[in-house]
Amino acid sequence: MSAVLAPRVEMLPMNLNDLDEIVAIENAAYPFPWTRGNFSDSLVAGYSAWVCRVGGELIGYVVVMMALDEAHLLNISVKQNRQRMGFGARLLRHAMDMAKRLGARQLLLEVRPSNEHALALYKHFGFVRIGLRKAYYPAENGREDALVYTRSLTEVSA
């Protein structure tokens, strides 16, 4: 009997060579996606930006901005055909671990109230709602609010 090995999951620093694949995922995932420039600017600014590869295939990414002892989750996404497989959770856990290693005591994020899957993920990880940003996101018919969530990173193992 032969053993079948699952493809290796790797978390790697995002680089400019990843941007074509990232922009393709971003454009498929969101009606108002980040641009290639948004991602390249994040890299130039030194944000903590990571990609998840499985067997070499880029399947997701996360971008976190550090500010003193606080981290801000700016973008997280998983390729549509790889969603609901735990990769979003892996990316979020990695972002939390990296933020803590960089000295963050908490992680903040904004999320659309209509993004039920993201809300479920954040609640599963213990994020709590702390605010509302009115008309924060562009939407098909005007603007959509953002829910603001936070989570302490003090108990996250770095």
- Beta fraction: 35-45%
Q: What is the CATH class?
A: Alpha Beta
Structural class: alpha+beta
The radius of gyration over CA amounts to: 16 Å
- Mean pLDDT across residues: 93
Overall shape? globular
Distance between the termini: 39 Å
What is the CATH-assigned architecture? 3-Layer(aba) Sandwich
Structure, explained:
With 158 residues, the chain is an alpha+beta fold. It has one domain: Aminopeptidase. Helix content is 28%, strand content 39%. It is built from 4 helices and 7 strands; from the N terminus they run βααβββαβαββ. The chain has helices at 19-29, 36-44, 87-101, 116-124, and strands at residues 9-13, 48-54, 57-67, 70-78, 106-111, 128-139, 142-152. A 7-stranded mixed beta sheet has the order 1-2-3-4-5-7-6, with helices on both faces. A hairpin with a 2-residue loop joins strand 6 (128-139) and strand 7 (142-152). The model has no long low-confidence stretch (mean pLDDT 93).
Search tags:
single chain; seven-stranded mixed beta sheet; 39% strand; 7 strands; Aminopeptidase; 28% helix; 158 residues; alpha+beta
Q: Mind sketching the topology for me?
A:
Blueprint (H helix, E strand, L loop, with lengths): L8 E5 L5 H11 L6 H9 L3 E7 L2 E11 L2 E9 L8 H15 L4 E6 L4 H9 L3 E12 L2 E11 L6
Parallel strand pairs: 4-5
Antiparallel strand pairs: 1-2, 2-3, 3-4, 5-7, 6-7
